[in-house]
Structure formats: structure tokens, C-alpha cells
Amino acid sequence: MIVEFLDVAESEVDDGFEYYQLQYDGLGFEFIDELRNAINRIVANPEAWQKNSARTRKCLLHRFPYGVVYQIRTESILVVAVACNHRKPNYWVGRARG
Predict the structure, then answer these.
(1) Tell me: the pLDDT tens digits for 46-71?
(2) Domain of residue 40, residue span
């Protein structure tokens, strides 16, 4: 299954990587690995996570306070946000369109 990211979600990945890399050398790469694991879990079973809104679901990362907010499309997964759980809840809702 194809996984696509909104540009703003890609920016959130970059921001998370940079933040963790500044905290501890190599931690940014661990963040990316954990994100990759979450994406693989989503691809393997997209409906495993509860609906977060009418059109989205959210898979939490195990080691970092982030969740992957995504939509299930006909032949793809669309990542709407890579959301830090410490930010304002559901700040990304305007991105989740049809």
C-alpha cells in the first residue's frame, strides 16, 4: 500500500527529527525509526486504530509523544499529521478533508 504525506506532515517529521537530534545525538534517528515502525503497523492493518475523527485514525508512537494521524484511501494511506501529543489537541483537523 502506498503511503503519502501532506507537505505539512512532512514538515512535522523534520521538526521532530531536528528537535530530538538537538536533545541527544542520534535521538532524531531513533524518532524516525519509531515513526517508520508506526507506519509499517498502519500499512499492515490500517483499521486497527480507533477513529480519531469522521475521516481519520491515530496511531501512537511507542517511545515518543507523537501520533500518526492518517486517512485510509482506496489504494493508499494519507498521513495528515505527525502530531506531537503535547500540542493543542486536534490542531490538524482542517487538513483532514474528503
Answers:
(1) 999 999 888 999 999 999 999 999 99
(2) 2-84
